[in-house]
Amino acid sequence: MRKLLLLSLVSLLILSASALTTAQDDDMSFDCGTDEEVTINYFGDPVGSHPEAEAATIERFMELCPNITVELNTGAASVTDLLGFYLQAFEAESSDLDVIRVDVIWPGQLAEHLIDLSGIAPQEHIDAQLPALIANNTIDGELVALPLRIGFGMLYYRADLLEKYEFEAPPATWEELEAMAATIQEGERAEGNDEFWGFVWQGNAYEGLTTNALEWHVSETGDNFLTADGEILTNNEAAIAAYERAASWVDTISPPGVVSYAEEDARGVWHAGNAAFMRNWPYAYVTSTESEDIPAFGVAPLPAGEAGIGAAALGGWHIGVSRYSDHPEAAAAFAIYMTSVENQKFYSIDTSSPPAALELYDDPDIQEAMPFASPDVVEITTARPSNFARAQYNAVSTLYFEAVHSILTGEEDADVAMELLELDLEDLFSE
Ligand code: GLC
Asked: Which of 54, 111, 151, 176 could form a disulfide bond with 171, CB atoms 3.0-4.6 angstroms apart?
């Protein structure tokens, strides 16, 4: 995995830039879906860290389609809460939501509430996206969301501190990370920074913990916790060791409060210059370059465990249109514009998040803005088991992150928590 990531980076660097479809051609033929004056509600970025990227998208769209006003609504910061909000609105068949952001794990969960965009979006628009993402978003033959961007778990490290403490490279294994984090933390505290921590990540009981825990699990066991065929692999020695290891970080190299951290909490500590390492998604890259408290940083694949591999969970966001929208044509036009190659380029650079459109990986501006991006990411990262679990994915993930959380907080022994989780997952799928 580590090698693959590096290889793909190298092959990316030697790829020559190919010409982009010109924005003008797209503009001239852009179909706004309706001539009527309408207002649609778009539910935007749940993390809320790059609101300007969404506002700029809306502005560009409204220049093309001045009859359509798009209202930007910021979603809940936690994707678990955001899903709860969507489901409640959808159950009530509310027309308040026209366009929503769809997490890469939600197509199967939300399919019944989203319109099929396959006959609406131009075929060349669909063909421009990474095929694996189109496959992910196609449920029973219906394309329920258009891909916008990719995310994957990565390790941010303070390059200046690695140098100061004479470490030559970022950690390749969890053991190395633990040792480096402890040394740097001890040194920085001795110099008077009491708030300094070795490693920050996402330990709250929510979807973000599912992604962190999946990475620990895969790096330690070599497998997903629930395979593509529905095999449950949570209750074994290697998996238990992975969660026990993470629990040992709490209040040693990681703050005690990490068990209630989401992405933005980790980013806050990191941006204040108070962490040596952070696990986060690509969106934190651009803001890290802007932080005055971070003299120098780098990004690397997440460390390997006993299985000899590092693992990165696949994340990312897609755009869907509600079946209960009163303005589906206008809503679809906005979804199509937002995911167009033209807009993805702006949006990816503004958010330092790898695009969904394949040709953009050859674009020198994209390569410069996110040197870690590779179109192979979808293949080399680990997907959460949403394609198997479909509408039960949220139930699976909730059982999983609650079990892992109980280990992190010391509420439950890891072997008991994993035995109970196995039984709960078996029950869920036998219903
Ligand atoms: C990021 C990822 C998304 C994931 C979420 C978890 O937003 O892109 O896929 O579910 O983090 O917090």
From this structure: 176
